[in-house]
Amino acid sequence: LALKEKYHSILHTIADKDVAQQLLDGKIALGGELREATVMFCDIRGFTALTQNMNPAEVIALLNEHMTALTRAVTEHHGVVDKFIGDSIMAVFGAPKSYGDDIFNAVRCAQRMLAEREKLNQTSRYQIQVGIGLASGQVVAGNMGSADRSNYTVLGERVNLAARLCSVARRGEIVIGPTTREALGDRIVVDEWGGAHPLAGIVRRVEPFGFTKISALGIEEQRVNVIIDFVSPRAEWKALGHGYRVITRIVIDERKGVVKVPVSALFRTGQDWSVFVDRDGRAELRRLAIGARN
Predict the structure, then answer these.
(1) What does the pLDDT look like over 258-293, one tens digit per residue?
(2) How far is the C-alpha of 93 from the C-alpha of 260, rounded, in Å?
(3) Is 118 strand, coil or helix?
(4) 208: three-class secondary structure by DSSP
(5) How many CA atoms lie within 13 A of 179 on its CB side?
(6) Which residue from 4, 35, 117, 187 has the least number of CB within 10 angstroms?
(7) Is the pLDDT score of 14 beyond 80?
Protein backbone atom coordinates (compact mmCIF):
# COMPACT_ATOMS: atom_id res chain seq x y z
CA LEU A 1 0.00 0.00 0.00
CA ALA A 2 2.85 2.40 0.82
CA LEU A 3 4.45 1.69 -2.56
CA LYS A 4 1.11 2.23 -4.32
CA GLU A 5 0.67 5.56 -2.55
CA LYS A 6 4.19 6.52 -3.59
CA TYR A 7 3.38 5.75 -7.23
CA HIS A 8 0.17 7.79 -6.95
CA SER A 9 2.08 10.71 -5.46
CA ILE A 10 4.75 10.65 -8.18
CA LEU A 11 2.16 10.35 -10.95
CA HIS A 12 0.17 13.31 -9.60
CA THR A 13 3.37 15.35 -9.61
CA ILE A 14 4.27 14.68 -13.24
CA ALA A 15 0.70 14.65 -14.65
CA ASP A 16 -2.50 16.57 -14.00
CA LYS A 17 -4.50 15.08 -11.13
CA ASP A 18 -7.61 14.32 -13.25
CA VAL A 19 -5.51 12.81 -16.03
CA ALA A 20 -3.48 10.79 -13.53
CA GLN A 21 -6.62 9.35 -11.93
CA GLN A 22 -8.11 8.37 -15.29
CA LEU A 23 -4.82 6.74 -16.26
CA LEU A 24 -4.82 4.77 -13.00
CA ASP A 25 -8.44 3.74 -13.59
CA GLY A 26 -7.61 2.60 -17.13
CA LYS A 27 -10.05 5.08 -18.69
CA ILE A 28 -7.44 6.60 -21.02
CA ALA A 29 -5.90 4.24 -23.53
CA LEU A 30 -3.25 4.84 -26.21
CA GLY A 31 -5.07 6.71 -28.97
CA GLY A 32 -7.39 9.69 -29.26
CA GLU A 33 -10.93 11.02 -29.50
CA LEU A 34 -12.60 14.17 -30.80
CA ARG A 35 -13.69 16.60 -28.07
CA GLU A 36 -14.99 20.14 -27.80
CA ALA A 37 -12.51 22.04 -25.67
CA THR A 38 -10.93 25.42 -25.01
CA VAL A 39 -7.15 25.61 -25.22
CA MET A 40 -5.09 28.22 -23.36
CA PHE A 41 -1.50 29.35 -23.72
CA CYS A 42 0.02 31.67 -21.12
CA ASP A 43 3.48 33.03 -21.83
CA ILE A 44 5.90 35.26 -19.89
CA ARG A 45 6.74 38.44 -21.81
CA GLY A 46 10.44 39.32 -22.12
CA PHE A 47 11.55 36.11 -20.43
CA THR A 48 14.88 35.85 -22.27
CA ALA A 49 15.90 39.43 -21.47
CA LEU A 50 14.79 38.98 -17.86
CA THR A 51 16.77 35.80 -17.22
CA GLN A 52 19.86 36.12 -19.42
CA ASN A 53 22.06 37.30 -16.54
CA MET A 54 20.56 35.01 -13.87
CA ASN A 55 22.19 31.83 -12.67
CA PRO A 56 20.28 28.57 -13.38
CA ALA A 57 19.05 28.20 -9.79
CA GLU A 58 17.44 31.67 -9.92
CA VAL A 59 15.72 30.89 -13.23
CA ILE A 60 14.24 27.66 -11.86
CA ALA A 61 13.11 29.42 -8.66
CA LEU A 62 11.43 32.14 -10.71
CA LEU A 63 9.62 29.61 -12.90
CA ASN A 64 8.55 27.40 -9.99
CA GLU A 65 7.06 30.34 -8.10
CA HIS A 66 5.27 31.55 -11.23
CA MET A 67 4.02 28.14 -12.39
CA THR A 68 2.79 27.14 -8.92
CA ALA A 69 0.49 30.16 -8.59
CA LEU A 70 -0.85 30.02 -12.14
CA THR A 71 -1.40 26.26 -12.35
CA ARG A 72 -3.35 26.46 -9.09
CA ALA A 73 -5.73 28.84 -10.92
CA VAL A 74 -6.09 26.31 -13.76
CA THR A 75 -6.99 23.51 -11.35
CA GLU A 76 -9.50 25.66 -9.44
CA HIS A 77 -11.31 26.44 -12.72
CA HIS A 78 -11.57 22.76 -13.76
CA GLY A 79 -8.77 22.94 -16.29
CA VAL A 80 -5.97 20.50 -17.04
CA VAL A 81 -2.35 21.61 -17.37
CA ASP A 82 -1.32 19.90 -20.59
CA LYS A 83 2.36 20.80 -20.44
CA PHE A 84 4.98 23.40 -19.60
CA ILE A 85 6.85 24.67 -22.67
CA GLY A 86 9.79 26.66 -21.37
CA ASP A 87 8.16 29.67 -19.71
CA SER A 88 4.73 28.91 -21.21
CA ILE A 89 1.77 27.05 -19.74
CA MET A 90 -0.57 25.10 -22.00
CA ALA A 91 -3.91 24.25 -20.41
CA VAL A 92 -7.09 22.56 -21.62
CA PHE A 93 -10.71 23.01 -20.49
CA GLY A 94 -13.16 20.29 -21.54
CA ALA A 95 -10.80 17.31 -21.80
CA PRO A 96 -10.50 14.63 -20.57
CA LYS A 97 -13.68 15.70 -18.72
CA SER A 98 -16.21 18.43 -19.47
CA TYR A 99 -17.75 20.46 -16.66
CA GLY A 100 -20.40 22.06 -18.91
CA ASP A 101 -19.10 25.64 -18.64
CA ASP A 102 -15.66 24.96 -20.08
CA ILE A 103 -15.38 28.19 -22.09
CA PHE A 104 -16.52 30.33 -19.14
CA ASN A 105 -14.11 28.45 -16.88
CA ALA A 106 -11.24 29.13 -19.29
CA VAL A 107 -11.98 32.87 -19.47
CA ARG A 108 -12.39 33.19 -15.71
CA CYS A 109 -9.14 31.27 -15.27
CA ALA A 110 -7.28 33.60 -17.64
CA GLN A 111 -8.48 36.61 -15.67
CA ARG A 112 -7.53 34.94 -12.41
CA MET A 113 -4.04 34.21 -13.77
CA LEU A 114 -3.49 37.88 -14.56
CA ALA A 115 -4.69 38.81 -11.07
CA GLU A 116 -2.44 36.17 -9.46
CA ARG A 117 0.58 37.44 -11.39
CA GLU A 118 -0.13 41.01 -10.31
CA LYS A 119 -0.40 39.82 -6.70
CA LEU A 120 2.94 38.02 -7.00
CA ASN A 121 4.56 41.14 -8.44
CA GLN A 122 3.79 42.97 -5.20
CA THR A 123 5.97 40.63 -3.13
CA SER A 124 8.22 38.77 -5.56
CA ARG A 125 11.76 39.74 -6.54
CA TYR A 126 10.71 39.18 -10.14
CA GLN A 127 8.39 41.66 -11.88
CA ILE A 128 6.72 39.58 -14.60
CA GLN A 129 3.97 40.25 -17.14
CA VAL A 130 2.18 37.57 -19.17
CA GLY A 131 0.09 37.35 -22.34
CA ILE A 132 -2.70 34.79 -22.76
CA GLY A 133 -4.40 33.28 -25.82
CA LEU A 134 -7.64 31.24 -25.85
CA ALA A 135 -9.26 29.27 -28.66
CA SER A 136 -12.30 26.96 -28.57
CA GLY A 137 -13.47 24.18 -30.84
CA GLN A 138 -12.87 20.58 -31.78
CA VAL A 139 -9.57 18.98 -30.83
CA VAL A 140 -8.09 15.49 -30.91
CA ALA A 141 -7.51 14.49 -27.28
CA GLY A 142 -5.87 11.37 -25.95
CA ASN A 143 -2.88 9.54 -24.57
CA MET A 144 -0.38 9.89 -27.42
CA GLY A 145 3.13 8.62 -27.96
CA SER A 146 4.78 5.23 -28.17
CA ALA A 147 3.88 1.98 -26.46
CA ASP A 148 6.73 2.65 -24.01
CA ARG A 149 6.06 6.31 -23.25
CA SER A 150 3.08 8.56 -23.86
CA ASN A 151 1.45 11.78 -22.69
CA TYR A 152 -2.14 12.93 -22.49
CA THR A 153 -2.48 15.96 -24.77
CA VAL A 154 -4.64 17.68 -27.38
CA LEU A 155 -3.87 18.37 -31.03
CA GLY A 156 -5.48 20.32 -33.83
CA GLU A 157 -6.04 23.70 -35.44
CA ARG A 158 -7.56 25.15 -32.23
CA VAL A 159 -4.32 24.41 -30.40
CA ASN A 160 -2.32 26.21 -33.09
CA LEU A 161 -4.72 29.17 -33.01
CA ALA A 162 -4.46 29.50 -29.22
CA ALA A 163 -0.65 29.56 -29.51
CA ARG A 164 -0.80 32.26 -32.21
CA LEU A 165 -3.24 34.37 -30.18
CA CYS A 166 -0.94 34.11 -27.18
CA SER A 167 2.00 35.29 -29.30
CA VAL A 168 0.18 38.53 -30.26
CA ALA A 169 -1.22 39.26 -26.79
CA ARG A 170 0.41 42.25 -25.17
CA ARG A 171 1.58 42.36 -21.56
CA GLY A 172 -1.38 41.78 -19.26
CA GLU A 173 -3.71 41.05 -22.20
CA ILE A 174 -6.04 38.13 -22.97
CA VAL A 175 -6.76 37.51 -26.68
CA ILE A 176 -9.62 35.14 -27.53
CA GLY A 177 -10.62 33.50 -30.80
CA PRO A 178 -13.94 34.17 -32.58
CA THR A 179 -15.55 30.87 -31.52
CA THR A 180 -14.75 31.61 -27.88
CA ARG A 181 -16.11 35.15 -28.22
CA GLU A 182 -19.40 33.98 -29.77
CA ALA A 183 -19.95 31.39 -27.06
CA LEU A 184 -19.48 33.97 -24.31
CA GLY A 185 -22.45 36.09 -25.29
CA ASP A 186 -22.82 39.87 -25.13
CA ARG A 187 -20.76 42.01 -22.78
CA ILE A 188 -22.42 43.47 -19.68
CA VAL A 189 -21.52 46.68 -17.82
CA VAL A 190 -23.02 47.08 -14.31
CA ASP A 191 -23.10 50.68 -13.02
CA GLU A 192 -24.42 52.43 -9.91
CA TRP A 193 -24.13 49.36 -7.71
CA GLY A 194 -22.29 51.09 -4.86
CA GLY A 195 -18.70 50.35 -5.86
CA ALA A 196 -16.00 52.68 -7.13
CA HIS A 197 -15.93 51.23 -10.65
CA PRO A 198 -18.37 49.54 -13.07
CA LEU A 199 -18.44 45.73 -12.99
CA ALA A 200 -17.94 43.60 -16.08
CA GLY A 201 -20.04 40.57 -16.99
CA ILE A 202 -21.18 38.35 -19.84
CA VAL A 203 -24.69 37.25 -20.80
CA ARG A 204 -25.07 33.57 -20.06
CA ARG A 205 -28.73 33.18 -21.00
CA VAL A 206 -31.82 35.21 -21.88
CA GLU A 207 -34.82 33.32 -20.50
CA PRO A 208 -37.22 32.31 -23.32
CA PHE A 209 -40.37 33.73 -21.70
CA GLY A 210 -41.49 37.22 -20.67
CA PHE A 211 -43.67 38.66 -17.94
CA THR A 212 -45.60 41.86 -17.33
CA LYS A 213 -44.34 44.35 -14.75
CA ILE A 214 -45.77 47.73 -13.71
CA SER A 215 -42.98 50.30 -13.62
CA ALA A 216 -42.50 53.01 -10.99
CA LEU A 217 -44.27 55.41 -13.39
CA GLY A 218 -47.29 53.13 -13.62
CA ILE A 219 -46.43 51.92 -17.12
CA GLU A 220 -47.10 48.31 -18.06
CA GLU A 221 -43.86 46.79 -19.36
CA GLN A 222 -42.95 43.46 -20.91
CA ARG A 223 -39.74 42.12 -19.39
CA VAL A 224 -37.45 39.09 -19.55
CA ASN A 225 -34.88 37.81 -17.09
CA VAL A 226 -31.24 37.82 -18.20
CA ILE A 227 -28.75 35.56 -16.43
CA ILE A 228 -25.22 36.98 -16.37
CA ASP A 229 -21.80 35.80 -15.23
CA PHE A 230 -19.48 38.33 -13.66
CA VAL A 231 -16.00 38.39 -15.18
CA SER A 232 -14.72 41.04 -12.78
CA PRO A 233 -12.76 39.46 -9.90
CA ARG A 234 -15.02 38.16 -7.15
CA ALA A 235 -13.35 40.46 -4.62
CA GLU A 236 -14.85 43.42 -6.51
CA TRP A 237 -18.49 42.27 -6.49
CA LYS A 238 -18.82 39.93 -3.49
CA ALA A 239 -20.54 42.73 -1.51
CA LEU A 240 -23.54 42.59 -3.86
CA GLY A 241 -26.60 41.02 -2.25
CA HIS A 242 -30.04 39.80 -3.28
CA GLY A 243 -32.40 42.57 -4.30
CA TYR A 244 -29.72 45.17 -5.12
CA ARG A 245 -30.91 47.70 -7.68
CA VAL A 246 -28.24 48.44 -10.29
CA ILE A 247 -27.99 49.96 -13.76
CA THR A 248 -27.07 47.29 -16.30
CA ARG A 249 -26.09 47.88 -19.92
CA ILE A 250 -25.91 45.04 -22.44
CA VAL A 251 -23.41 45.82 -25.20
CA ILE A 252 -24.98 44.44 -28.39
CA ASP A 253 -22.59 46.14 -30.82
CA GLU A 254 -19.05 47.47 -30.49
CA ARG A 255 -17.01 49.19 -33.18
CA LYS A 256 -13.90 51.34 -33.30
CA GLY A 257 -13.50 54.58 -35.23
CA VAL A 258 -17.21 55.34 -35.65
CA VAL A 259 -19.40 58.34 -34.82
CA LYS A 260 -22.72 58.00 -33.01
CA VAL A 261 -25.44 60.36 -34.25
CA PRO A 262 -29.18 60.66 -33.54
CA VAL A 263 -31.39 59.00 -36.15
CA SER A 264 -33.31 62.29 -36.44
CA ALA A 265 -30.14 63.99 -37.79
CA LEU A 266 -29.94 61.65 -40.82
CA PHE A 267 -31.50 62.39 -44.19
CA ARG A 268 -31.28 61.11 -47.74
CA THR A 269 -29.17 62.70 -50.47
CA GLY A 270 -30.06 60.67 -53.53
CA GLN A 271 -29.24 57.07 -52.59
CA ASP A 272 -26.88 58.05 -49.79
CA TRP A 273 -27.41 58.92 -46.14
CA SER A 274 -26.13 62.33 -45.08
CA VAL A 275 -25.81 64.54 -42.03
CA PHE A 276 -24.85 68.16 -41.38
CA VAL A 277 -21.74 68.72 -39.29
CA ASP A 278 -20.48 71.88 -37.65
CA ARG A 279 -17.30 73.06 -39.36
CA ASP A 280 -15.92 76.37 -38.11
CA GLY A 281 -19.41 77.59 -37.25
CA ARG A 282 -20.92 76.62 -40.63
CA ALA A 283 -23.12 73.62 -41.49
CA GLU A 284 -21.37 71.25 -43.86
CA LEU A 285 -23.04 68.34 -45.67
CA ARG A 286 -21.34 65.01 -44.96
CA ARG A 287 -22.25 61.73 -46.64
CA LEU A 288 -21.79 58.65 -44.49
CA ALA A 289 -22.25 54.89 -44.31
CA ILE A 290 -24.79 53.59 -41.78
CA GLY A 291 -23.56 50.88 -39.46
CA ALA A 292 -25.64 49.56 -36.58
CA ARG A 293 -28.91 51.36 -35.88
CA ASN A 294 -30.85 51.28 -32.61
Answers:
(1) 888 888 899 998 888 999 999 899 999 988 888 777
(2) 39
(3) helix
(4) strand
(5) 17
(6) 4
(7) no
Residue 94 CA to residue 39 CA, distance in Å, equals: 9
Dihedrals phi, psi of 240, to nearest 5 degrees: -65, 140
Chain centroid to Cα 218, Å, comes to: 41
Distance (Å, whole) CA 177 – CA 165: 7
Of the candidates 108, 100, 111, the residue with the CA atom closest to the CA atom of residue 36 = 100
CA separation, residue 130 to residues 73, 102, 219, 221 (Å): 14, 22, 51, 47
Helix (H, G, I), strand (E, B) or coil at 194: coil
Identify the CA nearest to 201 among candidates 226, 178, 165, 166.
Answer: 226
Cα–Cα distance for residue pair 172/113, rounded to 1 Å: 10
Of 110-124, 160-174, 217-231, minimum mean pLDDT range: 217-231
SS3 state of residue 5? helix
- Distance, in Å, from the CA atom of 56 to the CA atom of 47, rounded to the nearest integer, reads 14
145, 34 contact by CB (below 8 A) = no
Q: Which of 170, 147, 145, 168 is nearest to 155 (CA)?
A: 145
CA distance 18 to 92: 12
Q: Is the pLDDT of residue 133 over 90?
A: yes
Cβ-Cβ contacts under 8 Å for 279 (sequence gap 6 or more)? none
Residues 18/117, Cβ–Cβ less than 8 Å: no
Cα–Cα distance measured from residue 82 to residue 154, given in angstroms and rounded to the nearest whole number = 8
